Amino acid sequence: MDNYYNSLDFSLSQRDIGEKNGYQRGMHDGHAAGIQDGRTQVINEANTTIRQLNKHVSDQDNEIAELKKRLAAKNNELAELKNNFNRNAVIMSAERNTLETLASKQPELKGVIGTIFMSNYNTLCSDAMSKGHFKANMLDDKDYAVIAPKTVNFLQNMNTYSK
After folding, report:
1. In whole angstroms, how large is the CA radius of gyration of the chain?
2. Which positions are tagged coiled coil (predicted)?
3. What's the rounded Cα separation, in Å, for the pair 37 and 31?
4. Taking a C-beta distance cutoff of 8 angstroms, is the pair 118, 154 a contact?
5. What tens digit of pLDDT does each residue of 43-61 get?
């Protein structure tokens, strides 16, 4: 047997086994490399998708932040409008009270007060309606009579005085 291990047959046999193992190993390694390449490609695609989603989320976060800024600005604007409305309501109440007091203290002036007031009121009301600030004259608006009965009563009195 010692001669067999030193023989040409043994050498060829070992070479064949080595080639066979080499082919198998090469096929295995090639297959593994293919799997590794496929795995790497899938991971790269997943990472690309994740980056795109993160960018989309980041863009959405930026858009939300911008919308929050706009909302805050609109809230500030609304608060300012409310303050202006409250100031104007106080001024209008003072004017209404002044005219009512003047008409009650000097009844002979009711016609003049009513005529001047209704002339100005109708002009301003028509202008405001033409600009779309409101849809109906307060004298004709039944909803306004529920919301502001004192003002509607005042307008009706001024309208009556003007006739």
Report:
1. 46
2. 43-88
3. 10
4. no
5. 788 788 888 888 888 889 9
